[in-house]
Amino acid sequence: MKEYSADILVVGGGLGGVAAALAALRNGRSVIMTEEFDWIGGQLTSQAVPPDEHSWVEQFGVTRSYRALRNGIRQYYRDHYPLTERSRGWVDLNPGAGHVSRLCHEPRVALAVMEAMLLPYRGGGRLTVLQPYKPVGADVDGDVVRSVTLRHRDTGDKVVASAPYIIDATELGDLLPMTGTEYVKGFESQAETGEPSAPSEAQPDNQQAVSICFAVDHVDGNHVIDKPDNYDFWRAYQPHFWGGPLLGWNSPHPRTLEIVTRSFTPNPDDDPLLVDADQRRNPGDGNLWTFRRIAARRNFVPGAYESDICLVNWPMIDYFEAPIVDISEDEYAKRLKAAADLSYSVFYWLQTEAPRTDGGFGFKGLRLRGDVTGTEHGLAMAPYIRESRRIRAVTTVVEQDLSLAVRGEKGAVNYRDSIGVGMYRIDLHPSTGGDNYIDVGSCPFEIPLGALLPQRVKNLLPAGKNIGTTHITNGCYRLHPVEWNIGEVAGLLAAHCLENRLTPHAVQADDALLGDFQTRLYGEGVETRWPDVRGY
C-alpha cells in the first residue's frame, strides 16, 4: 500500500475538517486531508444544508476565518453572478433570501470558496488531499494512534496515512471505534448527566434522524418523476406523534409540539431585501418554499433564473426509522436507501398529491435540481448527519450548562478553558427511539477545550459533532459555525503542541499553558467569550 505522512492528518473534509486543515496550514504545518465524497464542505455543500447560524452572526460570535468564508461566498456572487444593482449593493447579501439564515446560497459557491482557500497550500505542496477516500482501519500503539488506513470509494485501493496528530473530522466519528477511543452514542441517562430532558435509562440506539436533502425549482411543464420505490409505504406512514401522515402539511411545531399547518407557495413575488432571517423572532418555517430558499430569482437580473431554487430539508424528509451508527456496511446502505426512498417519495407527493391553496393537488412544474447538488440521481451528494459518536471527554457539556430555563439571567457556564463560542437553540429532531422534537432555549455558550480531549487517547482530536457533548447538547453544538470553530481549534491545537513540544492534555490542565494557547487563539481571531447578550 502507498504510504503518506505529514505533521497532521485530518480524516474528513467537512466544515470541521476544512477549518482544521486551514488552521494548521496557516501555522506552517504539513497536512493530509481526506474526504469520501466528491465535494469538501460537508453540511454546507455535499449535504446541501444552508448555514444554521445565530442572530448576531453579522456582528460577532464566529471565528475570523468563518467570517472570511461567509464574506467570500457573498463576494463570489458579486464577482460572478448577474445580480441586480440593488442586490449587489446589499451589504449583508442573502442570495437565496431564505428565512433560516442570513446567508442562504447554492452549495457549489461555498465549495468554490473553500477550494480557493485551500489552493495556495495545495500548490505549495504542504496540503495533500486524498479524495474520495474513507477510513477503514487504524494502527494504534497503546494510547497513541500511529496511522489510518483509507480505502478509495470507487476502486477499493487502500493507502496508509500517518502523522503525529490525527484529527477525526468524519461525520459519524468513524475513527473512534477503529482506534479504540472510548465513546458514547445516542441518549445518555439522567442518572449519568443530570440533564432535565434526559430519560431515566440510557438509550444508545436512540439517535437523531438523518435526512437526504434535495433542491427543487418550479417552471412550466409536467416534470413528474416515476413513482418511487416504497412510495405506498411512506404515503401511508403516520408517526404516533405527528398528528397525521408524515407526507402532509401538518406536523409538530418543534418548540411547542402543537400540530401546525405549513404552507408552500412556489415563487412568491416577495422582495428579497425585506426578508428578516432572525431565529429570535421567527423560526421561518411557516412557508416551506422560502424557509431554505437558496436562490431568490428577484436577486438576479430578469431572465437569469426561471425560478427560485428551494432546498428541501423539511420535517417530512427526516428518516427516524432506525439508527445508522455501529451497523454493518450492508445495513448502513439499506437504511440510507430507505432515507432516499423517503426523500423521493416526498418529492413525488409534492408533484402529484400535495394540496394547493387553489383547491387542486400537486405541483407538476417542480423539478429536482441535481445539477445544483452535484448528482445525477437528483438528491444531495451525502446524507445530512445530525448526530455522531461522541468521545468520552475530559469535559462533557450538559444541558444544565447552557439551558435558558436552567441558567436564566446568569447565562451559560463560563469555562476556564473556553476555546470558542456558539449559539443555537437545543434543536433535536425526532429520533429512532420514537421521540418527538426536543427544542429547548439556550444561552450563548462557550466551547471548553476539555470537550475536545479524549480521556485516554493522547493524539486524536475530534473536529465536529464527535466532541464531548451529550445527545441533548449536541443539538446546539452541531451547527455550521460551531463545527468550524471546533475544527479550527483542533488544527491550531495540534500545530501549537508540535511547535512547543506539548500535549493537548497538558495545555488544558495547566493554567499558564492554557493562557498561552488562548492568547494564540485570540491572535487567530477565535472568540472565547460572549458580550452581554441574552438567549432565545
UniProtKB/TrEMBL annotation:
Membrane-crossing residue ranges in chain numbering: none
SUPFAM superfamilies documented for this protein: FAD/NAD(P)-binding domain
GO biological process, alphabetically ordered: NAD+ biosynthetic process
InterPro entries: FAD/NAD-bd_sf (IPR036188), NadB (IPR005288)
Protein species of origin: Paradevosia shaoguanensis
GO molecular function: L-aspartate oxidase activity
Cited Pfam families: FAD_oxidored
The protein's name in its UniProt record: FAD-dependent oxidoreductase
Highest taxon above the source species: Bacteria
